[in-house]
Structures are given as C-alpha cells and as structure tokens.
Amino acid sequence: MENLVLAFTVVFPLLVYLCLGYLLRRLCLWNETTVKQMNGICFQLFLPMLLFENVRNINLSEGVDFPLIGFAAAAVIATFFLAWLLVPLLEKEKPKQGVMVQCLFRSNFVLFGIPVALSLWGREQLGDTAAVVAVIVPLFNFLAVLSLELFREGKIDYSRIGRKILTNPLIVGALAGLLLLVLELPLPGPLASATSAISKVATPLGLMVLGGSFSFSDTKGFLRQLVICVTGRLIVVPALWLSVAALLGFRDLAIITLLPLFASPVATSSFAMAQQMDGDSALAGQFVVSTSTSSMFFWIVILKNLALF
Fold it and tell me: pLDDT tens across 35-44, in order?
C-alpha cells in the first residue's frame, strides 16, 4: 500500500497538469490555434531554457556517473535501430514508418525526467539526472530528425538533416548550458534569476499544452499502429531496459533516472517535428495522446517492490 501511495504522489501532479490543459480546451478558454502557438513557444523557448538551466547547474565536483550516461545512450540508440529494422516489416507507408520509429525510441524525458527524480529522490544529487538529460535529449532530437528524414518520400536530403539538427532549439539549449559549464562561466545574478524563472514554466505549461492537444476523434483510423507502438513505448521498452539496468546493478537514483527515460510518454515535440518534416502528423498526435496516461505509476510500484530504490 505504501508503494502505491508513493507512485500516486509522483504521477498525480503530472496528471493534474494534463487534465487542466484538457479542461481549458473543453471550456473554450483556449482553442486549437492557441494550443499550437503555446506548443511552439514551449519548443522554441521554455524547454530549451529548461535544458540550459539543468546542464549549466550540474555539479561536476560530485562527479558524473558515466556508466549511467553510457548505458542510457546505448539503450536509446539500440532501441532506435531495432525500431528502424522492425517497423518497415509492420507498416508499408513511409510517413507512418518514421513516426512509429520515433514513438518507440523517443520518450518525453525532458518534461518527466527531473520532476520524477525530484519527487522520488529529493533535490540532493540530481546532477546525475541532469547530466543524463543533457546527453539524451540532444540524442533524441538527432535520431528523431534522422528517422523522419530516412523515411520521407523521395531522396534523402543530408543537408536538410544537418540543418535540422544544428538549429534544433533543444540541442542549442543543451549545448549553450554545456559551454557555460565547461568554461565555468557563471551568469550575472539578475540574468540567472530570470533564466531560472523561465525554465520553471516548462514542465507545467508543457504538460498543460499536451493536455489541451488531446483529440480522440482519429483513434479508430490508426488502431493497428497505436496497438503496436503504445505497447512498445509503455510496456516492451521499459520492461527490456529496466530489467537490463537492474541486472547490471543500477540502483537508487540511477534506476529512478532511467524510469522516465524508458517509461514516460512519447515526446510532445514529436508531433511538431512530424509536421515540419513531412511525417504523418495525425498519427504522431495520436501517439502523444495515447501514451500520455503513461505506465510510470505501475513501473514505480514494480521497481519499489523489487527494492531497486
């Protein structure tokens, strides 16, 4: 019972943000245009600022858990290549293939990573989680651009891939934070306060926008793809990599960091990226909606019962 209460305590605030966004849409306090505009602002400003703050505030004096970062990156890359091989066997339409690959390997780690670790572990030693976020989110975006471009109709445009990667706001935010961290350049007090305040908007607003984007009208048209990818995203991927992590000896904050990496919903920005790169954006939106209930509640209970944290 105690573990159920713990899991509920972690997941419930995130669900409140989602439900609030959906309620605002239903009450016509914001509409589809507003949601799209706010989603763009989150992608262009608030989420990059969150990454910037997380990276520049990593405490290198406590050391960095390189085995954890290496395992997380290797698991994401392996998932990408497995999806890249398997999805074309299950789906013949190229615009859908890229979106399905993206759903299987790309979680909403940028929104769920720090809040889940904070709820389960507290503020102490969150540097390892921030370091994993700093590496994985740019990797996610690099692989997302690659998957959508590789499965586009027509000839692969490598210069387009390069431009999309170099100009991706999340990658830019993470690299900017890394530059300040490596050069040990502190921000002036007033500017640091401003960037910190802006970054704190990302999680609640991002989840509210996600809730406001929920649409259940097209679910029946994508039922086969939804069954395949939602099962993969919320059950198969976390079961595989959390089991491997446990066998390799990852415990406590490390396993808590890996939990949202593998078990959180597909990234909200996957919808916007599919729109920009000729993927099936309607299917991408359904993946975002269908995975947003998440399976983290159950995985928290399972991991806690196994005494992994």
Answer: 888 888 888 8
